[in-house]
Amino acid sequence: MPLQTMEGIVILRAISNGRDCLSLLSALFQGFTVLSIDTSATLVSVTVEAQDQVGLCPGCGYESRSVHSSYVRRLRDLPILGRPVLILAKVRRFRCQNSSCSRTTFAEPLGNLALAHAQRTKRLTAQLLSLILTTSSRSATRLAHQMGIQTSPRTLLRTVDRSVRSATAPRALGIDDFAFRRGRTYGTVFCDLESGRPVDIILGRSTEAVSNWLKERPGVEIIARDRATAYAEAARQGAPAAIQVADRFHLCLCKR
Fold this sequence. Notes:
By secondary structure, the chain is an alpha/beta fold. Helix content is 29%, strand content 32%. Strands 1, 2, 5, 6 and 7 form a five-stranded mixed sheet that branches.
């Protein structure tokens, strides 16, 4: 859900009372210092920076306090009382002081706030995932817009694609196609039939794409699919030991 009403009230009070109340916002940004907050009728902008003064090189693990440069990452966050929020995170780039390390500089991570290269916070991504996994891409988009989150059906599908990838396939796997744009662009969705949750989404529905996915994720024992020849051949190539089953919908209800 969006930030709770009381959290929104805290932020609005901080806006009205100035810098003395910015410390109240630190509870919403653990590990960061809130430097400023600006608001308009359509947007709330919050500027933060990491509290830790030491950077840890991801290549060698050496600590560094030598700052090479800095830049600002723009992250979309959960709305406050229906108002979109933009996080301006000041990120420092440290010099690695280990002469044997292949990295000359490295950027500090944003911890629980956001993943590397992400354009939104982890909590916003979690909210979008909750919406699409309980509804559909179009319904989730409408709900998100009502909450003040700007997104699209395709963005939501990409969010699922990036977040629920697995190194192994489930024991019972469902495979079906869907349309990004009917008649033009199609994809394939893989579902865990025992948990009822999506496992992955890929672009295309060719034999090669699906068989490669199965080869990279061993362990599937049962494959429920439609009657498409491409999926049948993909299952034979990618998971030859798996039992193939024509799913009930395509067998009994679909007349195509």
